[in-house]
Write a structure and sequence with these properties.
- The chain is mainly beta.
- It has three domains: 116 residues, Immunoglobulin-like (Sandwich); 109 residues, Immunoglobulin-like (Sandwich); 140 residues, L,D-transpeptidase catalytic domain-like (Beta Barrel), CATH 2.40.440.
- It is 8% helix and 41% strand.
- It is built from four helices and 29 strands.
- The longest helix has 10 residues.
- The radius of gyration is 26 Å and the shape is elongated.
């Protein structure tokens, strides 16, 4: 497993300091060890804290964290080698002892400790939410999606000045390794995608060490997250408005070419790259509020696959089918014969298979769906709070 986006950062809490550790053996030793944060006797430490330390002349360093009753906390060293990250959020109003051991080439040890107490549980917290849970299988175009929400499920934006600190704590690992980046869609939603589509069969693990992290005005992030995903086979759909055909490629082989009907002249389909957001064997469209009494309609469709928040879907036609491959008659959806829609429904992943539409009079609106793939890699990286140019 290889880290492709790492958020490990020393989270400062309380005053800084810490003394050099005493050698763990007889005689003078050049090995030094200092716990920088949290300093000894610090109180009101955030439960998202890390153990920051420095060593001199040490070949190896270990950190142990335990409560006063001896209960130990799992964790791992950060990628920079100067911090240690607990595997989960610490408990509120709890005293911990951190022990740093540095081992020198001469066999001498330096050991130092820091005892600190975490803060009381805050009154104002924001839930950190992942759209998909562990064990899901997604398509090669699936962005990782994190949202920040209040208890009533409404969005709660993270202020811009706190986004970098949040992002530092959002770690993604993939096997095989693939370079990727986070991008803030807005303050309440952040996505992650690789430079190119995920390789089929990729195993993805993302962990957010966000529980207890302050984000301003007395608000704290409520929870950590840990999610494991698998990328399924490579299913890609390409739709050409001029020929009114959809070409379906599975693992590099064109498996089917499907006659389709797209949006008519006054309701054109959007050109761009989308991914399947959700799938329904049956779905009811009710557009009376959107289009008004004259254009609005209520209709049940089969094998619906959503592409946009605004209501563009792939689905089986409810008409005779004579229009497929010859005429655009829809309100923006991609229609196809029922047998083709059923086949496509059965051969696509639940989320994340890319759909590219070309040749219509309207371009994709960023944010209307999971439109991450309509930005160049450079543009996408600029959406990271940690982008440094």
């Amino acid at each position: 497993m290889a880290v492709v986006a790492c958020g490990t950062l020393l989270a400062l809490a309380g005053c800084s300091g810490g003394g050099a550790g005493d050698p763990g053996g007889a005689g003078e030793s050049s090995v030094k060890a200092v716990i920088l944060e949290p300093a000894d006797a610090t109180t009101d430490v955030i439960t998202a804290t890390e153990i920051g330390f420095s060593t001199e002349n040490a070949d190896d360093s270990t950190v142990e964290l335990a409560e006063l009753d001896g209960s130990t906390v799992d964790g791992e060293l950060g990628g920079d080698g100067s911090s240690w990250l607990p595997a989960g959020q610490l408990e509120y109003e709890t005293t911990y002892v951190a022990t740093l051991t540095a081992v020198g080439a001469d066999g001498q040890n330096a050991i130092t400790t820091s005892t600190f107490t975490t803060m009381p549980e805050p009154e104002q917290t924001i839930r950190v939410f992942s759209f998909v849970g562990s064990e899901a299988v997604v398509g090669v175009g699936m962005p990782l999606r994190i949202e920040f929400k209040d208890d009533d499920d409404s969005s709660h934006p993270v202020p811009e000045e706190h986004r970098a600190e949040v992002e530092r704590r959002m770690n993604v690992r993939s096997d095989p390794p693939q370079a990727g980046s986070w991008r803030w869609v807005n303050g309440a939603e952040v996505h992650y995608r690789p430079e190119k589509y995920w390789e089929p069969g990729t195993q993805i693990h993302y962990q957010l060490a966000t529980g207890g992290l302050p984000v301003g005005d007395g608000w704290y992030l409520r929870n950590d997250l840990s999610v494991d995903l698998s990328v399924g086979n490579e299913v890609r759909m390409e739709v050409d408005n001029d020929s009114q055909q959809m070409q379906v490629t599975i693992d590099g082989t064109v498996e089917r070419t499907i006659p389709v009907s797209l949006g008519r002249r006054d309701f054109p389909s959007s050109s761009g790259t989308f991914v399947i957001m959700e799938k329904y064997p049956e779905y009811e469209f009710d557009t009376r509020e959107e289009f008004g009494p004259e254009e609005g309609y209520v209709v049940d469709v089969e094998y619906a696959m959503r592409l946009t928040h605004g209501g563009e879907f792939i689905h089986a036609t409810v008409r005779s089918g004579a229009e497929l491959g010859t005429e655009n008659v829809t309100h923006g959806c991609i229609n196809m014969a029922r047998d083709n829609a059923e086949w496509l429904f059965e051969h696509t992943n639940r989320w994340g298979d890319p759909v590219t539409i070309e040749g219509t009079s309207r371009q994709v609106e960023l944010g209307n769906g999971w439109t991450d793939w309509n930005l160049s890699w450079e543009e996408y990286q600029r959406g990271s709070a940690l982008f440094d140019g």
